[in-house]
Amino acid sequence: MQYKEILDDYIAHGNKNLSAEDEKAKVDAYMQGPFGVGLDKIIGIEEGTEDWITKTIDKIDSMLSNKYTPEERRALYGKYPETIEKAIDWELQGYMDFLRDNSIDGKPTIEGKMIGLGTKEEEADLRAFMDSMSSLYPNNNKESLSLLSRTDLSIEEFKTLFAKAREKATKDVEEQRKQIIKEEQEYNAN
Predict the structure, then answer these.
(1) Record's superkingdom (predicted)?
(2) pLDDT, tens digit, for every residue of 93-129?
């Protein structure tokens, strides 16, 4: 069985009496599926609808809080699931954490949009832009990375600020490199 079939079967029939071997095989197949796909059937909230991120986080939080203590929930994502129910709960916890990490007050961050929490057009536009910027050094300067966590910028504003931050960082690195070479030359001359 594939991921979607396993999820649909669980939704329709719950945890049937499966042998331990069959359950393990289903868990393994489920865990190989695409992360988060199909969870809307369990959560009942469609991606892209108004305030869907906040509603999804709240719904998953409520669902899992009714089943697990806070300690059990913290441990849930750190242990490979043994049943289909635990595999789905594992995925729900991970999906909720993913949404929390890539949104602020229910709005996707720029990075969130880049990894699929916005529209397909936003994702494609941001990916193409980031691919075009990948040749610039350095890739991990604080100023440009901090822009990825913002929700208050349009994509065009982000692109402008990100390009400027990368350009500045590249110039800073080049200046540092020149200074190091100069100091080495002075040291070697003495």
Answers:
(1) Bacteria
(2) 999 999 999 999 999 999 999 999 999 999 999 999 9
